[in-house]
Structures are given as structure tokens and as C-alpha cells.
């Protein structure tokens, strides 16, 4: 494990990153990386570089303008800070092909903030269950009302449309570690 001073510096950077995301201060958030790189494992998508990550921020904050985090735990590994947290938000805009439902979600997630040998943050790799989010977003819809039934249908069509994407090969072309 790295020395305590390195672990504390990594931790401070990650906490600043979380704080700046909630404030929607994208310049400050992006400054935590030399090259911004997000991997969303549930969706098997990668957002690489300043432009793609800013687009990701715009899309997610259009969908959830009140997005926030509740930290649960923070752990260290040899090359990462691992954060368990609740992600919260109310869907006020489209989430990809899924129309706004007005529903709120609180979803447990884990993010790996991966560092290189020079202590640069090189990736944020996020694990979560998409179905948990979707289930919460549609929970308040009334399928007995025409409006609720129409929105539910549009949500399902949108979710199916989004599920047909090819996974990013950077996430599927993996090699097992050498454990010998």
C-alpha cells in the first residue's frame, strides 16, 4: 500500500471531485484528472476526454438537475480509492431515450477512482444496477390513467432502445490477472 500521506491526498482529491460534481462546477471536477475518463459498467459505456465527459455531465444533469450523493464508505487499495455511495435525483428531463417521469431515485453505487504510478487520477469506474433506478423512476406512474400508461410505454420503449447498444470494447477486451 502507498504511504498514509498518499492515501490522504487521494482521498482529498476524490472528496473534492464529489463536492464539485454536486455543485456542477465542471471545470473544477475535470481538473481532478489530467485526462477525464469515466467508465459506466452497467451501461458498458466509456466517456473519454474533456468533451465526452462534459456531454455526460450535461446529459445526466438534464435528466437529474438535483443530482446528489450520500457517501457510505471510502476505502483504499494499492491503486484506487473505492467509494460506496447513494446517488439521488429526480428525473426532470430525458435520460437517454427514457422520457422524464418526475420520479425520484436513491441508488446504491460503487465507484473506483483509479490512480497511475504518478498519482494521477486516470479513471472513475462506476458500478450500479440500472434496473434499480428504472424501477424507482416508474414507481409513481399510474398505469390506470392514460397519461401514466403512455409515459410507462414510452419509458419501456426508451429502455429497450438503450439496451440494444453494443458494449464499448475497452470494457470487454479484458485479460485475467497473473496471480502466480
TrEMBL record:
One GO BP annotation of this record: polyketide metabolic process
PANTHER family from the UniProt entry: CARBOXYMETHYLENEBUTENOLIDASE-RELATED, POLYKETIDE CYCLASE SNOAL-LIKE DOMAIN
Protein name: Ester cyclase
Pfam families: SnoaL
Amino acid at each position: 500500500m502507498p504511504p498514509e500521506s498518499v492515501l490522504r491526498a487521494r482521498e482529498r482529491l476524490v472528496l473534492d471531485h464529489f463536492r464539485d460534481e454536486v455543485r456542477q462546477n465542471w471545470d473544477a471536477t475535470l481538473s481532478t484528472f489530467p485526462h477525464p475518463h469515466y467508465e459506466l459498467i452497467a451501461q458498458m459505456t466509456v466517456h473519454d476526454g474533456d468533451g465526452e465527459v462534459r456531454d455526460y455531465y450535461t446529459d445526466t444533469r438534464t435528466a437529474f438537475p438535483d443530482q446528489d450523493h450520500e457517501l457510505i464508505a471510502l476505502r483504499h487499495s494499492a491503486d484506487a480509492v473505492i467509494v460506496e455511495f447513494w446517488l439521488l435525483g429526480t428525473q426532470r428531463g430525458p435520460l437517454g431515450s427514457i422520457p422524464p417521469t418526475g420520479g425520484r431515485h436513491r441508488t446504491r453505487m460503487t465507484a473506483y477512482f483509479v490512480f497511475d504510478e504518478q498519482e494521477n487520477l486516470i479513471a472513475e469506474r462506476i458500478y450500479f444496477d440500472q434496473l434499480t433506478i428504472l424501477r424507482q423512476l416508474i414507481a409513481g406512474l399510474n398505469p390506470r390513467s392514460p397519461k401514466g400508461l403512455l409515459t410507462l410505454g414510452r419509458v419501456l420503449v426508451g429502455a429497450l432502445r438503450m439496451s440494444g447498444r453494443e458494449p464499448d470494447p475497452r470494457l470487454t477486451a479484458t485479460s485475467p490477472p497473473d496471480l502466480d
